[in-house]
Amino acid sequence: MSEVPLLEVMGVEKYINVIGPLGKTKDIVKAVDGVSFTVRKGESFGIVGETGSGKSTLARLITKLIEPSKGEIRYDGKSILKLRAEELRQYRRKVQLVFQNPYGSLDPRQKIESCIREPLLVNKIRQGGEVRPRVLELLTLVGLGEQHLERYPHELSGGQRQRLAVARALALDPETIILDEPTSFLDVSIQAQILELLNDLRKRLNLTYLFISHNLSVIWYMCENVTVMQSGKIIESGNRDEIFGNPRCEYTKSLVKSIPKIVH
Amino acid sequence: MKAAEEILEVRDFSLGLVIGKKAYKVLDSISFELRKGEILALIGESGSGKTLAALSIIGLLPRNAQVLSGEILYEGKNILQMTEKERRKIRRNEIATIFQDPVNYLNPLMSIGQQLAEIVPTPTKGKDIVEVCTNSLSKAGFKEPKKILRKYPHELSGGMCQRAMLAMALIRSPKIIIADEITTALDVNTQAALLAHLGELKKQYNLSLLMITHDIGLVASNCDRMVVMYAGTVFEIGSVNQVMENPIQPYTKALLSSIPMIGSQKLEAIPGTVPSILSMPDGCRFNPRCKFAVDVCRKTRPPIIETPERVVACHVFQQAN
Amino acid sequence: MIFPLSLPWYRAFLNSITETKFRLFAFSLLIGTMIVALISPLVIPSSVVYLVQPTKSLLPPSYAHIFGTDLYGRDLFGLCLLSITVDLQIAYSVTIASFGIGMFIGAVAGYARRSADEVLMRITDVFLSIPAFILAMAVAVAVGHTLFDLQIALVVAIWPAYARIVRGQVLSERNKLYIDSLKLMNVPARKILFSHIMPNIIYPVLAFLTVQIGVTILFLSGLTFLGFGSGPFTPELGRIISDGLDNFFQAPWIVLFPGFVLSILVFSFNLFGDALRDMFDPRLKNIRSV
Question: A188 vs chain B: nearest CA distance in angstroms?
Fold first, then answer.
C-alpha cells in the first residue's frame, strides 16, 4: 500500500428533496453531510454504516451516477466533478462498482457471455476474435467457467451472480473497485467464497478497494482502514485495529459491542 | 432426551412438497425439542427448511405440502392430528409467531392500537381493551405506549414495527413465541436491543422462544441452545456455548470457520452450493461439499447420535472429543 | 412465462398457452380467424363482391346462401369471409405502422432528458386531445377515399396510444438497478434503450398491442360504416352493415350476420390479449423461501 492518495473526498454533501403529496418539496434530507476521507492506492478502505447512513449514496456520488450538491471529489489528483463525455468514460474505466443486489444488477434477458462481452466491445478493450478468450479469462478469474456462457442470470445462484458482477467490473481493467455490500444478500457460506475471491483478486491485480458494509465482522476481515458513518456524517475514522480495539465515539462503541466475539 | 421440561417436541418429522406432479422430501426426519423457558435457535441458511419447520409447528403449510411421517407434540398432544379448530386455538392463545418483515404483516391502513385491539379476547370491552393493549406495548419495550396506540405503521421505524408485532404476539400471553428471522431487516443496534429485550421477557414470563435465524452472531449472544439445519436435515443440536466452542458435525464446523469474526485469520469457504429441493444428493445431504465425506456418506442417511446434551447426525464424527 | 428463457420462445409460448382451457380457446379462436382470413380469398371468387344479381336481392338465409344475400344479390357469407381478410390485413398493417412510430417516440420520450420528453409528450398530447375517431375521420376526409388512405388515417389516430404505453414502461424500467450497471460500463444511451430496456418491456406492450388490433378493426369498421372507404364494393364489415341498414326491417340478416362476425373478430383479439396478459404475469407463486 503506497502513500499516494488515489481517491480524495472533500466536504461532500448531497441534498435530496423530499416531495410532499402535492408535488412541492416538503423537506430536504442531507443524505451525505460533509464527508471527507482519502483512499490510498492499493489499500482496502472500509466504510461502516447502517441503512440511512449515506454510504450507498456516497458510492453513487463517487461513481458519478449522481452529482454532489457541494464539495469536491478528486481521483488521481484531478477533480471528477465536471468531466466531459470522453473524460467520464475514461474515469469509469478506472473506477468500477459492484452492487449489493446480485438479483437486480444484471439484465435478466442477457446471457452471461453477452454480459461480459458488452463492456469489452463498448469500451473497445478487445475486438473481433480476441473477445471470447478474454471473456473466458475473466470468468475463470472469478471462479465461473465455460459452462456458464450460455446461461441467463436467473439460472445462476446469488453467489454466482455476484461473481459475474465482479467479472464484469474487472472487464474494464479498473484500478479501483467500490464494493457496496457485496455479500449482504448472500448466504453465509457463500459469503466466505466471495470475500476470499475479492482478497485474492486484490493481491493479484493490484486493486484498490472501497468496501462498504454494515457488517462489522466483514469489514474487520477485509479492510485496513475504516471510517464509520452515521446519518450522512463521518463519526470516526482510523485504522482497523484502532477503531475496533479502541473506539472513541458512543456510536462506534455500541456497534463494536454488538459484534459477537466467538471463541473457537 | 425426555426431559420433563420440554414444551414442544418435533419427532422424526418428514415433510414433502409436491412440485409439478412430483413429490420431494423437503424435511427429512427432523427431531428437536423446545424446553420451557429457553431460547432455542434454529440455525440454517436459505434452503435449510427452517421456516418450513416453523410453519409446520403452527400448522400453516402451503397447499402442496404433505406430512410424510412423524409428530409434533405440544404439551404432549400431536398438533398434526388436531383439527383445524384446535390448531387455530393454539395459534391464537399458546404459540405466537412473529415474522421477518413487519411491514408486510401490519395493516397500513389501521393504527397500531386498532390492530392490537383486534386480537384482544372478546369478553374484554372498552377501556379494558385500551389497558390490555397499552400493557402489551410496554411489555414489548415501548416507553410511551399510549402514543404508539395512535400511530400508523408507516410512522414507525423498522425496529418499532417489530416491537409492535411483538406486542401483538404477547397480548394473549402465549407460552411459546416463534420468531422467524425477525432481525434481518434491522440495524445492528436495534437488533441487539430487541433481542436483549426478548431475553428479559423470557425470564419475566417464563416464555419459551424458538428463534429462526441464519445469523450465528445473534445466536451466540442471545440463545441457550441451538439446532443446526441443512437442506432439511438436523445436523447438530446442543447448547450454544458447547456447539460454538466444539462443533462436531462437519457442516457446523465448516459454517463456523467460514464466518468472519474479529480475530479470524483466514476464512474457509464451503465449496459448492446448497442443493435445491429438486435435486437432493443421496445419503447425507451435505456429502458433496464435505471434506470428511467417505463412501457411506454418499449412500445412507447419517445416523443420529443422541446424548442428553448433544445430538449429532454424522457418519464420521460421532463423539465429542 | 417471462422467465423460462432457457427454452426457446416458441416452446415457452406453447407450454404456457396450453396450460388452461381458457388460453387454449382464445388462441384457437384467433388462429381460426386468421386461417379464415388466409383461405377466403383463395376459395371465394371475387364475383361474390362484384357481381350484381338483382334477382337474388335480399334473399333470406338458405342452404345456398347461409347468411342470405344483400341488396345487390351478393352472397353475404362469402362477403363476410372476404371482409375478414381485408379487416385483418388492414388491422395488422396499421398496427405495425402505428406501433413503429409510437414505440420510437415513446421510447425516446421515456429515456431522454426531461426537455425532450416534454416536447415529445406535448406533440403526442395534441394528437390525443382530439377524440381518436374524429381525428381519423378528419384525416380520411383530407387524404382520400381509398382503403389505403383509411389506413393512414388510422395510423395517425392510433400511434399516440402506443407512445404513451411505451413511454410509461420505459420510465419505470430505466430506474432499475441494472440500468445503472450499464451506465457504469459506458454503454451508450442508445444501446441501453434499444438493446436492454426494450426487450424487457416488450411483454406487457405485446398484450396491449393484441387488444389494440381488435380496437383497430372496430375503428376501421366504424369509418367504413360512416361511408369512408371505396364505395359499396369494399368488402368491409362496417360497410356491409351500413349498406344493409336501409333494409334492416325487411332483411335483418344483412345487419345481424356481419355484426356478429365483427363481434367475433374483435372478441377473439380481446380474449387473446387477456390470455397473454395472464401468461405474462409474474407466475412465481410456486417458489417459496424455505
Answer: 7
Q: What span, in angstroms and rounded, lies between the C-alpha atoms of B26 and B231?
A: 8
**Buried b / exposed e across B171-185, counting CB within 10 Å, b at 16+?**
bbebbbbbbbbbbeb
Highest mean pLDDT among A19-23, A180-184, C52-56: A180-184
Q: Determine the average pLDDT of the residues in C234-249.
A: 84
Q: Which of A187-196, B209-218, C2-11, C186-195 has the lowest mean pLDDT?
A: C2-11
Measure CB to CB from residue B269 to each of A196, A214, A217 and give the nearest one. Answer: A196
The CATH homologous superfamily to which domain C52-283 belongs is MetI-like (1.10.3720.10)
Which residues in C lie closer than 8 A to residue A90 (C-beta atoms)?
none
| C-alpha–C-alpha distance, residues B245 and B243, integer Å | 6
Is C21 near chain B, with CB under 8 Å?
A: no
Q: Would you kindly state where each structural domain of chain C is located, as residue ranges?
A: 52-283
Residue C49 has pLDDT above 90, yes or no: no
Looking at the complex, does the CB of residue A154 fall below 8 Å from at least one CB of chain C? yes
Q: Which candidate from B19, B51, B64 shows the least CB-CB separation from C289?
A: B51
What are the chain C neighbours of B64 within 8 Å (beta carbons)? 286
d(CA C272, CA C260): 18
Option in B45, B221, B256 nearest A187 (CB):
B45
* Helices B112-119 and B158-170, packing angle to 10 deg: 20
The pLDDT assigned to C114 comes to 85
Indicate the helix (H) or strand (E) that contains A179: strand A176-180
Contact (Cβ atoms closer than 8 angstroms) between residue C186 and residue A93: yes
Could you state, in order of their start, the residue ranges of all structural domains in chain A? 5-257
What pLDDT score was predicted for residue C288?
Answer: 31
Helix (H) or strand (E) holding A48: strand A44-48
Residue C5 is predicted with a pLDDT of 59
Query: What are the chain C neighbours of B50 within 8 Å (beta carbons)?
Result: 290
| Superfamily designation of domain B6-94+223-313 | P-loop containing nucleotide triphosphate hydrolases (3.40.50.300)
Whether B64 has its CB under 8 Å from any CB of chain A: the answer is no
Long-range contacts of C89-94 (CB under 8 A, 24+ apart): C89/C37, C90/C147, C90/C150, C90/C151, C90/C154, C90/C216, C90/C220, C91/C213, C91/C214, C91/C216, C91/C217, C91/C220, C92/C213, C93/C151, C94/C151, C94/C154, C94/C155, C94/C158, C94/C216, C94/C220
Let me know how long chain B is: 321
Helices (H), chain C: 9-17, 21-43, 47-50, 76-111, 114-129, 132-143, 147-174, 177-184, 189-191, 198-225, 237-245, 253-280
Whether A101 contacts A41, CB under 8 Å: no
Mean pLDDT of C27-36: 90
The ipTM assigned to this model is 0.86
Residue C80 grid cell: 363476410
In tens, the pLDDT along A124-149 reads 888 888 999 999 999 999 988 888 88
What is the model's pLDDT at position C154?
92
Going by C-alpha positions, the residue among B260, B189, B193 that lies closest to residue A228 is B189
B51 touches chain A (CB under 8 A): no
Interchain CB contact of A56 with C (< 8 Å): no
Domain residue ranges of chain B, discontinuous segments joined by +: 6-94+223-313
Architecture (CATH level 2) of domain A5-257: 3-Layer(aba) Sandwich (3.40)
Q: What is the mean pLDDT of residues C114-123?
A: 90
Q: Which residue has the cell 352472397?
A: C75
Q: Do C200 and A109 touch (CB under 8 A)?
A: yes
Cα gap B121→B139, rounded to integer Å: 18
Kindly report the average pLDDT of chain B as a whole number: 87
Look at residue A262 in the predicted model and tell me its pLDDT: 54
